[in-house]
Design goal:
By secondary structure, this protein is of the alpha/beta class. It is built from twelve helices and twelve strands. The strands form two sheets. It has a seven-stranded mixed β-sheet with strand order 3-2-1-4-6-5-12, sandwiched between helices. A five-stranded mixed β-sheet has the order 9-8-7-10-11, with helices on both faces.
Length: 362
Amino acid sequence: MNQTGTFRASTRVLVINPGSTSTKLALYDNGKPTWMAGAHHPVKELNQFHSAAEQYEYRMDFIRKKLSESGIDIDFDAVIARGGLLKPLEGGIYRVNEKMKHDLRNADMDHACNLGGLLADELAKECHCQAFIADPVVVDELDEVARYTGIPEIRRKSVFHALNSKAVSRRYASSKGKAYEELNLIVAHIGGGISVSAHRHGRVIDVNNALDGEGPFSTERAGTLPAGQLVDLCFSGRYSKTQIKKMIHGRGGMTAYLGTNDMITIAAEAEKGEEPFKTLLEAMVYTVAKQIGAMYVALDGNVDAIILTGGIAHSTFCMEMLKKKTNYLAPVTVTPGENEIESLAYNALGALRGELEIKMYE
């Protein structure tokens, strides 16, 4: 549907998913994928930027190049992108507006997902269609007790892979003939960032902050750190605030130890028993398992299933390690990949057809 409110023979939706180290694209025609493209951006290229916000032109140039190489005109009925680090809000689909763009440009936390709505808006303006985001990472459904930290000035935030976590939960529930709202689930999204969320009857009542230094360490994030040692490092005079932030997310985790975020290589070397790959991978999986245990407690031990998902879930070696540490808690199922592209396309088509409410970001 274009801005005149009329449908044409085919409804074309462009989907943009900017991740911390990748940009993925897809074109959906009447709800069916007709084209997909993307790339894992090398660390050396990303390191030329001091922040994800500075990557805007780099990512836009990449998108335009991919569209041009495939002969795809910038002529869509909607452009939808992965949402960014906005203020906490309920799940759903939102139209990109000026308030949203302002908040994306001035987000408190730096991540490539903040570029999503901005990239979508630029392309949508070119073809006079609507730009959307859906289920951004700041979906906040936490129980109140989960917000406390022990320091009144610091409250825990809900920042996680909401889009994929909810999508795989609904898919699992459907496979069991149930509604998402009927089940208690633990979802571990394992990728460039790792979030482990506790889903109680359709609400995510607790989850680690997957971006800003909490939970497992990942390919490029440090995860939970000993607070006293971190404070000492901050005041050592050796590092700036920006450098410390980069240690926490962007250049922490596997990248800090190995100089690479390439999990395909890391897992392959670990499986061969090569060090330090083997020990580091075991350590990362160990931290994920511990976080799953924490969410098991958050759900009072009443868990219907543990769902392992995200890019790293493609690694059978990694998943077998993790299942051995957690399958005594509840049945474990693996749903590899992010599933975010499909979910975004579904949301955009539903909005265009009037089947889903388009919410206003305020």
